[in-house]
């Protein structure tokens, strides 16, 4: 009865618990690093969207439609998807949530955090996902580093941080290494790298940087399509 994490490339992660499948930023169509097409996803209970850039909002609408999954997103992003035809009953809290707020679905608690980035509707966000078994995951979305990561780490001891490290649009590896020390996360998986030519193409040096800035954090560098056991 384990919990697994699968990286579908870029910021697209699938978290599988014994009784739930959760997607964050489910970008399959057009994602050069996606290991499977959207049609191969047959079940999802929760779909979380950090912001409405195409490489994050991705296939959220279609995924919710084909699986009946519930959506967690900021009010404005959720409103856009309802406008595009998403059944409002699939939106957690009916209209979504906002930064600082926590919504719950079948024992999974999802807290929205700020992110420093841009987007079209609402503001960019991240999520702290507390699974039923207590395991806590922080998906930072797209963001630069910010010192309040310390606060989130203090409030919700983080087992796993999914941090953007690709530079140009988000933190680079050095900033993300310091972010690990702010968050005091037990494990970090870098994301948002290697997808496009403009992004960093290797995370070989990331482990060394984390060793210096956050020696207590374990670095796991995943490859698209890889699945790891979390707990
Ligand atoms: Zn973005």
Can you lay out the helices and strands and say which pair or pack?
Blueprint: E1 4-7, E2 13-16, E3 21-24, E4 46-48, H1 54-57, H2 60-67, E5 70-72, H3 75-83, E6 102-105, E7 108-114, E8 125-130, E9 136-139, H4 149-155, E10 160-164, H5 173-183, E11 187-191, H6 206-213, E12 218-219, E13 227-229
Parallel strand pairs: 3-4, 4-5, 9-10, 10-11, 11-12
Antiparallel strand pairs: 1-2, 1-13, 2-3, 6-7, 7-8, 8-9
Helix pairs in contact: 4-5, 5-6
Features:
six-stranded mixed β-sheet, seven-stranded mixed β-sheet, alpha/beta
Short description:
This protein is an alpha/beta fold and 231 residues long. 20% of the residues lie in helices and 23% in strands.
Q: What do these coordinates show?
A:
With 231 residues, the protein is of the alpha/beta class. 20% of the residues lie in helices and 23% in strands. It has six helices and 13 strands. It has a seven-stranded mixed sheet, with helices on one face. The protein has a six-stranded mixed sheet with strand order 5-4-3-2-1-13, with helices on one face. The mean pLDDT is 98. The chain binds zinc ion (ZN). Zinc ion (ZN) is lined by residues 51, 53, 56, 117, 142. The site of zinc ion has 5 residues, from loops.
